[in-house]
Amino acid sequence: MSSQKRYLVKFLPGGESVKVPHGYNLRQAILDCKLNIDSSCGGVGTCGRCRVQVLEGEVDTTESRFISKSDKEKGFVLSCMSRVKSDLTVRLPEARKSRGSITIGGFDSTGKDYAGISTDELSKVEIEPWIIKENITVEAPSLSYGTSDLYRVKKSIMEKTGVQDPAIPIDLIRKLPYTLREKDLNVSVIIDLENSAVIDISPGHGDKRIYGMALDIGTTTLVMYLVDLQSGKILDIQSGYNPQIKYGEDIINRIVYANRKGGLEHLREVIVDSINSMVKNLVKHTGVKESDIVSVMIAGNPTMMHLFYGVPPRFIREEPYVTVANRFSNSPAKDVGIGQLVNAYVYCVPGVASYLGGDITSGVLASGMYREEELALFLDLGTNGELVVGNSQWMMGCSCSAGPAFEGGGVNCGMRASEGAIEKVVIDEDSFKCSVDVIGEGKPAGICGSGLIDIIGEMYLKGVIDRKGKFNRDIGNEFLACEEGDCHYIIVEANSSATGNDIYISEIDIENLIRAKAAVYAGIRTLLEEVDLGINDLAKIYIAGGLGKHLNIRNAVMIGMLPDISLDRYHFLGNTAVTGAYLSLLSAEKYRQSVKVAGDITYIELSVNMKFMDRYVAGLFLPYTDMKDFPSVEEHIYSIYKKPGPAGPGKKDKTS
Amino acid sequence: MVFEIPKNSYNGKINNLKLGVGNSQIMVGGEAALPFHGFEGDIPNRPIIAMEVYDAEPSGWPETVSKYFKDVFSDPVKWARKNIEEYGADAICLKLTRIAPDGENQGPEEAAELTKKVRESIDKPLIVYGTGPIEKIAEVMKRVSERNADSNILMGWAEEDSYKTIAAAAMGYNNNVISLNQLDVNIAKQLNILLTQLGLSPDRIAMDPASSGLGYGLEYCHSAMERLKIAALLQDDKMTQMPIINDIAPEVWKVKEVKESEANYPEWGDQEERGINWEAISCMSLLISGSNILVMRHPGAVSLIKQMIDMLL
Prior knowledge:
The complex is a heterodimer of chains A (about 650) and B (about 325). Chain A contains 17 helices and 28 strands. Chain A has about 650 residues and is of the alpha/beta class. Chain A folds into five domains: about 1-90, Beta-grasp domain (Ubiquitin-like (UB roll), Roll), CATH 3.10.20; about 130-205, Ubiquitin-like (UB roll) (Roll); about 210-350, Domain of unknown function (DUF4445) (Nucleotidyltransferase, domain 5); about 370-405 and about 515-630, Nucleotidyltransferase, domain 5 (2-Layer Sandwich), CATH 3.30.420; about 405-505, no CATH class. In chain A, strands 13-12-11-14-16-15 form a six-stranded mixed sheet, sandwiched between helices. In chain A, strands 27-26-17-18-19-28 form a six-stranded mixed sheet, with helices on both faces. Chain A is globular, with a radius of gyration of 28 Å. The N and C termini of chain A lie far apart (about 65 Å). Chain B is an alpha/beta fold and about 325 residues long. Chain B has a single domain (about 45-310), classed as TIM Barrel. In chain B, the strands form two sheets. Chain B has an eight-stranded parallel sheet. In chain B, helix 4 (about 135-145) packs parallel to helix 5. The mean pLDDT of chain B is about 95.
């Protein structure tokens, strides 16, 4: 029977193969082979990232704007939109250049520069350990003092630390009679003062030094600090990519994957494995004993936290968008898969709502805005733009989906800010040739977020595109390559690039970037409007997130992504998620504050906000539909062109 | 105590759009107050009614309206004259349907020739709408503008993805352009900015917000048009000060409420009267929302709207 027929699908260059039934989804076949395929849209045909080339055999595919006519003839299809109809040989896109080293939000590995993380905030923090180790001697029982072991332990703890009736887990009680008596009723106790909980009881008196870990689980990267809890010293740092990336580049795709059978458990396993190997490395590098590590403080966005704890994230994505929990229970490390940390408890920085997580609470904590009088805006720029506005009196936050464009996703020649990425671009106004700055020593391989922002700004200023982001085709631009009405602008020619292909930007790329910047600005405007404030009321704008470090603020203003206010009000903070976790690990006051901050932020859901949609559409224009929002950009344009814009019968335009 | 009508004061006014030349010239727009708020500011020009003429016999019209035009369906020139002489049209809106590539795919030259013939045989201004893909329309309008040089015809339309050809055609031969948006204030503004940055004068643009008729989202049209007028008049936003044209006739005459017979829906009453009311109520609502040019079909509805304008102004 034909319905029983299975086809052999073979993938190049690696030669992996899989047998699938008739009509099977090609992208799924790729995933079944455990191969990487980008798809920021989750396989619904809207991002154009999962292009593959069918070399032999037949697929049933749906037309896509991402596949030009000539590419179609060469066999290119979107794998997510293709169904297998015969045996196939399929070429996958070249694995993108190794992901390179990661810059940890400005953290200098010498440990001196804490990420420009308001160094202030760090120097002000008073170390106030709230997980401590105490040596105690428990009273001996007698016939006339026949109280229980547990009672006597608690009494000693109370006398030493003031903690009344701490919770003691059953597994410690099981061992308690022998633990107590092994060293003559001398024991050392690790105790969490904030939660009145005993973490460990071990025989004998010992060294009181204990350690903790601050961990940022980002959608893209992981960063972990090993910290001496008494001195606050950061002993070592580990960082790496989130291994879940191959199952979806963004949050939505991870949730989709987690919904599949076994998907959640699989995502949990890979992240926990990565964390365990980071722990191993930290221990190896520093010589700290695993048993002396007593706490792990995690900050991450809600989806990452759900996946780490193995909690189904499904309802984050479905209206009305709720989390299972914004603050997960404090758990013994072994219960969440970090079994090597026998004495540690895992804590999380509490989140606010489904798209505003502990990473943002951490950021607000690190910025210090929660105790300032003046009004500040905290902005974390990543796949989601997360914003919090407020001061010591009140705070409001929201999240706007900017899409992966700033992280190089959804853009043909996009890449992350690593070796080989173009991070700065200048266009010559006469020849339209681009000059580029590249991260590292090598040839350019792609364009990262800050480079893309530069390109949009430059193209707009030099009249390469109109304010809608469409190419001006009649200005004699030799670097504009057009095919059947689809044009792309060549930034670096093939012979100068690391990949041997042109590095270019297409109209669709530009559209994606304009959408991303429109979402960020619309979020800022809407949030401020909700509290009847204007851009100029902001005394400070804190920028966090991976994009921050290389970002040229002036260009981001030029394209209408960031508010047009004095540049000296902008402050880069770097990776504030890990900083906030670090702060709350060190100081009981910060730990309490993190809970308060998360509770104090009022969340606004933008996906149903009409004003947001209105601002967003207004933002699908350079820099913005209403130029009054961007006075300095308007002034700049007038100073060059003596009229509202470069498009039109300007010096190079032949239209009359 | 004497009652005093509370009054708004306005900072901006709607542009004057010149349609036609010489004796047939009329001015559209120019108001410095919200629709019919003559007590608050000057409203120098009446809203105008343009009646439809097609370049081929239209299909799908209910008998209740087609009966008025059966004798002229085959001759657009006669049709145009009938609209003016018998039904009192202020302008003619010629719809080029034969240019559509999936139909007759008539070339630009032939279409342009017809527009010229119609324009020369009437003493009222001419509005021309194309049908089909925007690229073809732009190509045709280039020729239409050339053949009707210096006659201030109004050509539809420009949209976001395609505005340069038609704008250049208008600029080159002194004609006017309709900028189309899908009931979106931001998009309307953006397109006007793009057109004017090309060098097209703002007073050569009319905006078509692609409104619908009664029962099919008219409230939303009202809100979008009102926002445009408020931005134009209160905030003096130059990029929303273009007069508004509503090509409403096709929206009205395609719905079942005007097409179904009384035999099928006795409770709906007389079919023709119902159709006239449907068009008139749609049009009146759009006038109150800020319409400056209405494109209409039924002579009865035209007559009703004219009376209402007289009463309100």
